[in-house]
Specification:
The protein is α/β, with parallel strands linked by helices. Helices cover 31% and strands 24% of the residues. It contains seven helices and ten strands. The strands form two sheets. It has a six-stranded mixed β-sheet with strand order 6-7-8-3-9-10, with helices on both faces. Strands 2-1-4-5 form a four-stranded antiparallel β-sheet, covered by helices on one side. Strand 1 and strand 2 (31-41) form a beta hairpin. It holds the Pfam family ABC_tran. It comes from Actinocatenispora rupis.
């Protein structure tokens, strides 16, 4: 697979993490959502942010891209405070909600977002990358839900981001396309892009280079899939997640 979206060279030291969370606390509506999260997410790899719905994944991603008010702690991204002006062209963000204009075609959307960057990727190559080359002239509002999500992904890729934050990018995609998207994610990582990919589907955990497993706003594990399996004493990542939950409950009691 070709990789048309090579990131720009990182300006920070190569051994510095792409994302650094330090005792991160978020409260909303009087309720604590994230409970003192601390983690270092490496550069140039696919890190899976996994956990059940309501575990705080989207809130954490909003912190990373700098649009979430935090109670205390800090988030640094590519060596700078999250949300810094300098990061705007270096971080791509795909939300769960569609982030494209429904009354424009796929190509018009991608070309519009390309106009916002100094060195965008080629729009037609990016459209082909997400498997929409046959739908490039189609109005987004006439696409299926899965195609709509892929159009949003193309717009996130067009700026050649150094960090790509993807919130549930494979929801609603058929198995073949899901596999193609994961191949694309790893191709981007090999080219130097850092990816943070959220999912509530544990069968995607094994596709990641690193895992950040969360539940109820707390980190259960942060390691490679192999290390998580070893720590839980099982080869099944679903079972590993359950065992980690039970251990946490035993400690809490």
């Amino acid at each position: 697979m070709n990789v048309p979206t090579e990131p720009r060279a990182a300006t920070a030291a190569i051994d510095e993490p792409a994302i650094e969370l330090s005792d991160l606390v978020v409260e909303r509506g009087g309720r604590r959502i994230l409970h003192g999260l601390t983690a270092r997410i490496p550069r140039g790899a696919v890190t899976g942010l996994l956990g059940p719905s309501g575990s705080g994944k989207t809130t954490l991603m909003r912190c990373v891209v700098g649009v979430q008010r935090i109670r205390s702690g800090s988030v640094r991204v590519l060596g700078a405070p999250a949300g810094s002006r300098a990061l705007r062209s270096r971080v791509g963000y795909l939300t769960q909600a569609p982030s494209v204009y429904p009354d424009l075609t796929v190509r018009e959307n991608v070309r519009y977002f390309a106009s916002l960057y100094r060195r965008p990727a080629d729009p037609d190559e990016v459209i082909a990358t997400v498997g929409l080359d046959g739908n490039a002239g189609q109005l987004v509002r006439t696409l299926s839900g899965g195609q709509w999500a892929r159009a949003s992904l193309a717009c996130a890729l067009i700026g050649r981001p150094e960090l790509l934050v993807l919130d549930e990018p494979t929801v609603g995609q058929d198995p073949v396309l899901r596999d193609e998207l994961w191949q694309r994610f790893h191709a981007l990582a090999r080219a130097g892009t850092t990816l943070l990919v959220s999912s509530h589907v544990m069968d995607e955990a094994g596709r990641c280079d690193h895992l950040l497993l969360v539940r109820e706003g707390r980190i259960l594990a942060h390691d490679t899939p192999a290390a998580v399996r070893a720590a839980a004493g099982t080869d099944d990542l679903d079972e590993a997640f359950l065992r980690l939950i039970r251990r946490g409950e035993e400690v809490a009691s």
